[in-house]
Design goal:
Layout (H helix, E strand, L loop, with lengths): L2 E5 L9 H10 L6 E5 H4 L7 H9 L3 E7 L7 H10 L16 E7 L17 H4 L1 H10 L2 E2 L3 E3 L9 H15 L1
Parallel strand pairs: 1-2, 1-3, 3-4, 4-5, 4-6
């Protein structure tokens, strides 16, 4: 399965989790995937829509990897959705994206138990990511269970634990 991993992190050099996931995926020769640092590609936010649609056309699965900021994705990812997922290409009678798979790879600053009805955020991640599930239904995509890494700032997420998480990520990409 050909997979396009789009990493939407506005400062990947300062990221521990997203940088580790991206690097591990890039160094997985057994997978048929392309890993793309979207902020490096579009630092000026001028998205090449035709190129993005070409890349997506060639993929069987689209993976959106991003840090969860203020209950949403970074700005470039939202702009990518607005511009690339256009009528006639992503939806409508002649849509070409239907039938592909979509997976989210999300990192959070908070610990897992803070993302529950009883927790600090008063909602589970499944609720907070619902717009993406609805988007996949609208576009005719198959929504894969998200890969979520909680606790970006947790003291127990040392280098060994992060390497294990990155290995889990690659296993999910298989």
């Amino acid at each position: 399965m050909k997979t396009s991993v789009m990493v939407f992190h506005p400062n990947i050099a300062r990221s521990r989790i997203n940088a580790a996931l991206m690097e591990r995926a890039q160094n997985e020769p057994e997978l048929d995937l392309v890993v793309r640092d979207m902020y490096a590609l579009y630092p000026d936010f001028h998205i090449n829509v035709e190129e993005e649609q070409r890349v997506a056309d060639g993929a069987d699965r689209l993976v959106f990897q991003f840090p969860f900021y203020w209950y949403s994705a970074p700005a470039l990812m939202k702009q990518w959705e607005d511009e690339v997922l256009s009528s006639g290409w992503a939806y409508g009678p002649d849509a070409r994206i239907a039938g592909k798979r979509m997976m989210l790879a999300v990192s959070t600053g908070g610990l897992k138990d803070t993302y529950s009805v009883e927790g600090k955020h008063h909602a589970a991640m499944s609720e907070l990511l619902l717009p993406y599930r609805i988007m996949t239904q609208y576009l005719g995509l198959e929504f894969e269970e998200p890969f979520i890494v909680h606790g970006a700032y947790a003291p127990d997420l040392d280098d060994g634990a992060l390497a294990a998480v990155a290995q889990e990520y690659v296993a999910r990409l298989h």
